[in-house]
Amino acid sequence: MGKTMRDMDTPLPLRRETLAQLPDSITVPTYTRDDLTPGIVHIGLGNFHRAHQAWYLHRLMQAGEAHDWAIIGAGVRAYDAAMRDRLAAQDYLTTLIELTPASTSAEVTGGMIDYLPIEEGNGALIAAMGAPEIRIVSLTVTEGGYYIDPVSHGFDADHADIKHDAAHPAAPRTAFGAIIAALRARRDAGLPAFTVQSCDNLQGNGAIVRQTVVGLARLSDPELADWIEANSSFPNSMVDCIVPATGPTEIALARDFGIDDAAPVSHENFRQWVIEDDFCAGRPAWEKVGATLTDDVHSYEAMKIRILNGGHQVIANVGELLGCTTIADCMADADIAAFFRKVERDGIVPYVDAVPGMAPVDYLDLIERRFANPAIKDTTRRVAFDGSSRHTGFILPIVREAVAAGGSTEALALVEALWARMCAGTREDGGVIEANDPFWDELHACALAAKTRPAAWLEQAHLYGDLAENTVFSEAFTGWLSAIWKDGSRATLRAFAT
């Protein structure tokens, strides 16, 4: 008779030796982890990677494939050490908890076999990426982690981290500096280059990571930059799965399944991964477990980034202002839900092309259902974090396209006005919104100035470029921000929706 959760008095610590003792309802690795050898170094090993890229690899391994593509985790920031300690203590295993409105299920994944020490100069990381068996270096370092100038969208060579790495290429501070140092070592040893694969929510993420790696290399070694450009590959991809941050609730969920996991991951019951098939040193057969390999990643990523990621920014800021804790709470609020639908329909969907099997309005219906899933405790605060990168990446490109096409910018002007109001740092009920952006101090000062002079917000040229000079957009923004301060966010949403 199989084991059940009721048979267990206390949750079992997640370890290799306890896998066979877990309840039968939990799927565990069927492959022998001692047989796994590394093929991927992943930098920025957070929840999304473990619920997405690592899950696809795990599924391949469950099918008896890709056992020479195991993942070595890595990080370049001091705070990554805490995650390394948690995962090392449980043999790099992860509990994934799938949440639907009606049920939950759990599985343990084991495709990660090591996590490099976090150290100044990143010597261990450089050495690992220099090993011949590593054929892919992948990254999830957030949208704001690629050293992009927010206005020109070119490489930001003036950032302090970049200047450091250009001056100290053998002891870099950034992931990209470490990648360059490893590629230099491979070239000098006569080894082939590896693929650099971004898994972040950036349109053209492969082109962007190429821009950063080659741009940084060129600052210190132009010949190496040419070699990288000629020999490495940087595939574009679109990634999609809603993965909340882990807290006490998620740890308790794992314990309810009989697992004592210090870093479990919860996720929705939807995943999508669309990948450009451009890998200079081979790749796992991800398409066998549901990934889409295509030459047209752009259309898929434009739909997802504009409707989903842009949609997150549409509701998260007003959700913070109105005290909605989660994205599902926002969608349960009739005023926010109506606002979301109208902004998407009038301001975003007209600038999204269809992809095979999916029209933009049908994708919007799918996103509404996913956002409304009450089992996913995705906080508005997490989604609203780093608006200076997310608005410039997800919302403002649509504004510029609408301006160029002579279309309406009314809806997105209201979205930007709500962001400005949120950055003033107080909710409608008087509660404090804590700092939630790497540039919060500057945003907060501009937001307070914009209370009486709305143009002050749009004059942040590093965010808005010349949009402040567009009369139609700036007048719409001024009108909405003035109304928000005068009448309140909820009344303004209702005025917009009618």
From TrEMBL:
- Domain Mannitol dehydrogenase N-terminal span(s) in chain numbering: 39-288
> What highest taxon heads this organism's lineage?
Bacteria
Which GO molecular function terms does the record list? oxidoreductase activity, acting on the CH-OH group of donors, NAD or NADP as acceptor
Against InterPro entries, the record matches this protein to: 6-PGluconate_DH-like_C_sf, 6PGD_dom2, Mannitol_DH, Mannitol_DH/Oxidoreductase, Mannitol_DH_C, Mannitol_DH_N, NAD(P)-bd_dom_sf
Q: Does the keyword Oxidoreductase apply?
A: yes
- The answer, when asked if Lipid biosynthesis is one of the entry's keywords, is no
Query: What Pfam families does its record include?
Result: Mannitol_dh, Mannitol_dh_C
Keywords for the protein's UniProt record, in alphabetical order: Oxidoreductase
Q: List residues of the Mannitol dehydrogenase C-terminal domain.
A: 296-485
Q: Which PANTHER family match?
A: MANNITOL DEHYDROGENASE 2-RELATED (PTHR43362:SF1), MANNITOL DEHYDROGENASE DSF1-RELATED (PTHR43362)
Q: What is this protein called?
A: Mannitol dehydrogenase family protein
